[in-house]
Design goal:
Order of helices and strands: HHEHEHEHEEHEHEHEHEEHHEH
Distance between the termini: 48 Å
Number of strands: 11
CATH architecture of the largest domain: 3-Layer(aba) Sandwich
Protein name: Tripartite tricarboxylate transporter substrate binding protein
CATH superfamily of the largest domain: Bordetella uptake gene, domain 1
Family: Belongs to the UPF0065 (bug) family.
Largest sheet: 6 strands, mixed
Pfam family, one: TctC
Signal peptide: 1-23
CATH class of the largest domain: Alpha Beta
Strand order of the largest sheet: 2-1-3-10-4-11
Helix content: 40-55%
Keywords: Signal
Length: 327
Amino acid sequence: MSKMRTRLAGAVAIAAISTLALSACGMNSENSASGGEEFQPEGDVKMIVPFAAGGGSDIAGRATAAGLEEASGVNISVENQEGGSGAVGYSNFLAQNGNAEYLLASETALLALPLTQKVEFDYTSFTPIMKLGDDYTLLVVKEDSPYKTCSDLVNASKNERVVAAISGATGLDNIVFTLMEEKAGAKFDRVPFESGSEATTGLLGGKVDVISVNPGEITGQLEAGTVKPLCAAAEERYKYDSLKDIPTAKEQGIDVSFAQFRGVIAPGGISDEAKQYWIDAAKKFADSDAYTKYIEDNMMQPNVSYGDDFAAYLKSNNEDLKTVLGK
């Protein structure tokens, strides 16, 4: 690149050098497949988690940041930017357009927010890097709750007030409760929280009757016996030993299942080299013991995709979500 700038400096006025040099960089980015200059972060990279610490998104973001850091050799710090059911973090991330030294731990809110709120972005505003896998939810109540199954919960909600915690208005848990209302005639009052961990605290404190959480967010409480699962909002039972005895909602006559994806995205407008750099690091992470541990510790389905394949998944899932949300 320094030689190109030298040639340009000899051919044009000093005032034009910056513009032409930037153009040359852009051409290098577009032609990375034919041997252009490779991308390398110049400093530390920041991973934004658009939800509060302690929840599933935070767990995913920190695991992914550590995995990509190991794979790339670049320092990656994590910053929680909660608020607006994820809208604050995503909106701040939008402002980093073209800056490949930022990443974001993404999930279904990427699709749900533009369908339910007035925001300046949709999934096409960003660069998909890696889909880590799929995360279904468990419907969980306190250990001393009178409800023993999701059928009990649905039937009770038709005649009495049942309060459900949701981690943001656009989260997977709210989608699950909405589907239960549409398909089973349930009726829930909702109390919003900023993360699954806060929702769990609300359940244990008696502020709500039921929560819908990812298994990785509730494993400790399940093992301690302070909560009990009513059903899994999944297509089939989990294979993990600690969850395999939990029936699906469908087994109880409630045909509801919806997966939340976990992934990582980069800002829009980054170079092809930068996109490929992070995809290569993501593939290395997916082949590591750290990735396997994350998936197994959080009891997820390891359905991985990268780049354009991840983008195709987002397009398809967005159409599905439009149907669910009646958009």
